[in-house]
Design a protein that fits this description.
484 residues; alpha/beta; five-stranded mixed sheet; two-stranded antiparallel sheet; 14 helices; 8% strand
């Protein structure tokens, strides 16, 4: 190997040439190092995201779940029932369904017969249990008679709904739909339940037919739910991925504390929202998580601050920026102030509201100083489409600044909540269904699930019995909870 010349053996011209070459190489290495450092920081930030500090679902956390950090303040009370809490326990009833008397035939001490003596008293103990249940077959017989006066033959009518020589009744079909659509049991396990509990075998076709019939009967109810949502003052919106026919589609929900409709669509944006049929005619306030297509609609908007708290937690932990923690504390303080206010809102001209908004602006200004915009590209750099890439804290700051009225909408409107938990709760069970039963094999199955699940959610919100609601559906008189 040839030895490199030493500096003592180089002429001044050679030294200048070597210095220029090393300087150029140093600049190239610096640029490469900057790119690698930025890439390393990006990968570290991406791996640091969990369901606690971002919008990622808990299922993406893997087995070593992150330690939860609740934003709630400690109440100082011990866990469990508090002083003055009225407990509930199993109590005897005054009129039991059946009574079994256990006769005392002889004396426990001397063996004397006591059969003929009346009891001085009775000690009562009650057992609550389920009676044996089996499928009951009711045969309907319609009389056929020949009229001696006119010579014609007449037949008495069958009850409404008794249309075939052999068929299942509304209670059984309601139970089948209850198990598959509410308790989310797969078809095979539902068949096992019917055999184990009722000693009756049902085919998958029967279960599918019951679901299809329920879907058809609920068409008008779903339309009524959608129409009532269009007239609501505040509606929560959310969406999540759903596997249908081996493809990812999107399940959309629009909900209030009283109503829930779902819709499944191949798209996530405005095309799907138009198909759901609420936002195009909605004039109230839409609560959502800042998915941009929502802003295509002319209604008022309010943003979910639970999402903001998670993103601010990420910025505080990953980038160690104090403004993020200050804004977390401010949002929680504002939430507590609203909850403590008699009207569940702060007046538009109230001093407390102006103070909170002023502090909000000051914290954002501090954050923007910490995260200046990226420098303009060099004149010699190749031109790229779109705006220069910014850091995640800067993107969050821009959003919190530009959408300040939507972030703080909960301060002045008592109907607007702090977060979008209503929408997220209503969409959660669809993920549970997917975990239990997997994907939908056909589009019609997904649509049936959405309509029936929306009916279930609406019925439950009105504290009505889901089984009775399903039975009324198969009697062609589905419940309209808001009319009850």
């Amino acid at each position: 190997m040839a030895q490199l010349p030493t500096l003592e053996n180089l002429s001044s011209v050679q030294k200048d040439e070597l210095l220029a070459e090393l300087w150029a190489e140093n600049q190239v290495l610096r640029q490469q190092l900057a790119v690698l450092e930025a890439r390393l920081k990006e990968l570290a930030a991406r791996s640091a995201k969990t369901s606690r500090n971002s919008s990622k679902p808990p299922s993406s956390d893997g087995l070593p779940k992150p330690k939860p950090k609740s934003q709630r303040k400690r109440s100082g009370r011990k866990p469990g029932g508090q002083r003055g809490h009225v407990g509930e326990t199993l109590a005897q009833v005054a009129a039991p369904d059946s009574i079994t008397i256990h006769a005392l035939c002889e004396c426990d001490y001397c063996g004397e017969s006591l059969k003929e003596l009346e009891a001085d008293a009775l000690e009562r103990r009650q057992v609550f249990d389920l009676p044996p249940v089996r499928v009951e077959v009711t045969e309907h017989q319609a009389e056929i008679k020949h009229c001696p006066a006119c010579g014609q033959t007449s037949r008495s009518p069958f009850p409404a709904g008794v249309d075939h020589p052999v068929q299942y009744g509304p209670q059984l079909k309601a139970t089948a739909v209850y198990l598959t659509q509410y308790q989310l049991l797969p078809l095979q396990r539902t068949q096992e339940v019917f055999w184990d509990l009722f000693a009756h075998r049902l085919s998958e076709g029967t279960l599918g037919n019951a679901t299809a019939a329920c879907f058809e009967q609920l068409a008008e109810v779903e339309e009524a739910i959608v129409e009532r949502l269009r007239q609501s003052a505040v509606v929560h919106f959310d969406e999540t991925g759903l596997r249908v026919a081996a493809r990812t589609q999107w399940l959309h929900v629009a909900s209030t504390p009283e109503l829930t409709p779902y819709g499944v669509h191949a798209k996530r944006g405005t095309e799907a929202m138009d198909a759901l049929g609420i936002l195009p005619q909605f004039e109230g306030t839409a609560v959502h998580d800042h998915w941009k297509p929502y802003f295509q609609y002319a209604c008022a908007h309010a943003l979910c601050n639970a999402h903001h708290l998670r993103e601010l937690t990420y910025v505080h932990e990953q980038y160690d920026q104090a403004w993020a923690k200050a804004l977390i504390d401010l949002l929680l303080e504002a939430k507590a102030a609203v909850e403590a206010a008699p009207t569940n809102a702060l007046g538009a001209q109230s001093k407390r509201r102006r103070t909170l908004e002023g502090r909000y602006d000051a914290i954002l200004a501090q954050g923007l100083l910490t995260n200046p915009p990226p420098p303009p590209p060099a004149a010699s750099a190749p031109k790229k489409r779109g705006r220069p890439k910014q850091s995640k804290p800067k993107n969050l700051l821009d959003r919190l600044r530009d959408y300040k009225p939507q972030v703080l909408a909960f301060l002045t409107d008592p109907l607007v909540p702090f977060d979008n938990n209503q929408g997220e709760r209503d969409i959660r069970m669809t993920k549970v269904r997917q975990k239990i039963s997997g994907t939908f094999r056909a589009q019609h199955g997904a649509q049936s699930f959405c309509r029936i699940r929306g009916y279930i959610s609406t019925v439950r919100k009105h504290k009505l019995n889901v089984m009775q609601a399903f039975k009324s559906t198969f009697l062609a008189q589905p419940l309209t909870p808001w009319a009850e």
